[in-house]
Amino acid sequence: MAPVVLITGASRGIGAATAVKAAYAGYDVCINYLNSADSATAVASKIEALGRRALTVQADTAKEDDIIRLFETVDRDLGRLDALVNNAGITGTGCLIEDLSGSDLKRVLMTNLAGPFMCAREAVSRMAFKHGGSGGAIVNMSSAAAKLGSPFEFIHYAASKGGIESLTVGLAKEVAAEGIRVNAVRPGMINTEIHASAGMPDRCERIAPTVPMKRVGTPEEVADTVLFLLSEKSSYVTGTIVDVSGGR
Ligand code: NDP
After folding, report:
1. Residues 164, 141: contact at Cβ < 8 Å?
2. Which range of residues forms the domain containing residue 52?
3. Which residue's C-alpha comes closest to atom 12 of ligand 1?
4. What residue's CA is closest to ligand 1, atom 41?
């Protein structure tokens, strides 16, 4: 039976690129999404064209009930779970801290930090040896913002990604003897719709000259690193955060 990976936020951007590359690598894939049902279906079609099973599940990964339903749907329809990519994320609204609304802060922290915690909980409860699982791999999506702090616009987003890195380091140690590796990818500026969603459609063009490699990255370049961290090629790698940032 093919290994199964669940990728949150896989209808677009980095998650979608990771889903297609996972199918190339031999995984059956659960494509989670929030609103973009048509885009999720298009990703599923690409995966099925590669001869792999694809399951699309609408679920808000900022909500515990939705997360539980998401994992139960994978249990029922795909029958196993070998890997989780905690990818879904939002920037929230760019602003100075004195203009930050409580609701925006809560939404960013729930989506980018609490959601991945609860997804990791569900994955560990299925993959850990002590729970009858066969081990597995978790990859969390951090951001260069965790190091840079994103002053004057996205400190709340940066802090949520700092939290993801602590989750990665701590959980990797907690479940290492349970056959589960936990790593994170820390992308720099990647050309996806996240910037337009944040009201900054020209962000990539603006930032590109400041990147040591003088360009932004592609979703596929991030996906390649995620697939490496999921694969046996990284069998002795855990608790690590890999920069994919063109030197930024
Ligand atoms: P996109 O905006 O292109 O895609 C975001 C994806 O996440 C979509 O599939 C979206 O679903 C989904 N999503 C958002 N919120 C939720 C939610 N509450 N529940 C379920 N799914 C949700 O983002 P990127 O591909 O750019 O970003 C992916 C990850 O990479 C994020 O964690 C981001 O923080 C991180 N990252 C991105 C960088 C970049 O420059 N692009 C840089 C550093 C990190 P739907 O389509 O249905 O809305």
Report:
1. yes
2. 4-244
3. 9
4. 190
Total Cβ atoms within 10 A of residue 110: 18
Distance CA 20, CA 29 (A): 9
Number of independent structural domains in the chain: 1
Report the CATH number at residue 223. 3.40.50.720
Centre of ligand 1 to C-alpha 129, Å, is 31
Where helices occur in 128-200 by DSSP H, the ranges are 145-148, 155-175, 194-197
pLDDT at position 217, please?
98
- How many A from CA of 227 to the centre of ligand 1? 17
Locate 42 and state its tokens. Answer: 């298009």
> In a mutational test of the pocket of ligand 1, which residue from 117, 192, 203, 207 has the highest number of ligand atoms less than 8 Å from its CB?
192
Identify the DSSP state of 190: B
For 200, phi then psi, to 5°, come to -130, 70
Give residue 194 CA to ligand 1 midpoint distance, Å. Answer: 6
Contact partners, residue 130, CB within 8 Å, separation at least 6? 178
**Can you tell me the distance from the alpha carbon of 176 to that of 181, in angstroms, rounded to the nearest whole number?**
6
Calculate the average pLDDT of the chain.
98
> pLDDT per residue over 199-247, tens digit each?
999 999 999 999 999 999 999 999 999 999 999 999 999 999 999 999 9
- Nearest Cα residue to atom 31 of ligand 1: 89
What is the tens place of the pLDDT at every residue in 70-97? Answer: 999 999 999 999 999 999 999 999 999 9
For residue 142, name the pLDDT band (cuts at 50, 70, 90): very high
